[in-house]
Amino acid sequence: MQFPAVEMEKLSSLFSTLIAGGRNSSAPAATVTSIFVYPIKSCRGVSVPQAPISSTGFRWDREWMVVNSKGRACTQRVEPMLSLVEPELPTDAFDADWEPSDSSYMGIYVLLISFSCYK
Description:
By secondary structure, this protein is an alpha+beta fold.
């Protein structure tokens, strides 16, 4: 679900007011300088120029997770080497109107690592 631009402006205004300590000011209270999305929970993040917001947060953020053969989640808390797993999505995947197709992909780059959560 994508939020209309008007709703995003209202949300932005609300966040600015909250960050400014309740003061209504024409000057921005905060400036976003970078956005990171983590498509696979506990793996390396992807820096993106924009990230559409859905009902659950940024699009593609923590959509997938690594699990062991018993279906239990592996996280960096147990397996710090997960930070070396680098997901890659098509750049246009972060456009508000992009939808996956049969030719869409997600690349995953990883060194040869032995994860303890699989032992």
